[in-house]
Specification:
The protein has 123 residues and is an all-alpha fold. It has one domain. 81% of the residues lie in helices and 0% in strands. α1 packs antiparallel against α2 and α2 packs across α3. It is globular and about 40 Å long.
Length: 123
């Protein structure tokens, strides 16, 4: 891996981490498009790599401590979401691997568009 790729990957991580700490986003919303556009990964590769990033939650752990200190973490909600996330991520990844690149990319884009519209025009 060359130095420019290393710097791009570190930059993606910094941006995703900063936005995760700032707005509670990061993972798929930042990392997947960045890997697609900057490094030319396939949709499957970008999604798999983004998910693998969550296996090393040190940065997220530190931001959770900050939010917890401010009284802004509901631990019981987080635990239940994490339990659901385990099964949901397994089922979702199994389905994603059966879809072709174009369909997977369209689904990803549609999800981002729906979220964007909701945040821009919703209450």
């Amino acid at each position: 891996m060359d130095i420019s790729t290393v710097l791009i990957l570190l930059g993606i991580g910094i941006l995703a981490g900063a936005l995760s700490g700032l707005a509670g986003i990061g993972g798929g919303i930042i990392i997947v498009p960045a890997l697609l556009m900057l490094l030319g990964l396939t949709q499957h590769q970008a999604q798999g790599t983004s998910l693998a990033t969550m296996l090393i939650p040190i940065g997220v752990f530190l931001s959770v401590i900050n939010y917890h200190k401010g009284g802004n973490v509901n631990i019981s909600f987080a635990i239940l979401i994490a339990v659901g996330f385990i099964g949901g991520s397994f089922l979702g990844s199994s389905l994603a691997l059966k879809l072709d690149q174009q369909m997977l990319r369209r689904i990803f884009g549609l999800i981002l568009a729906v979220i964007s519209i909701k945040y821009l025009f919703g209450k």
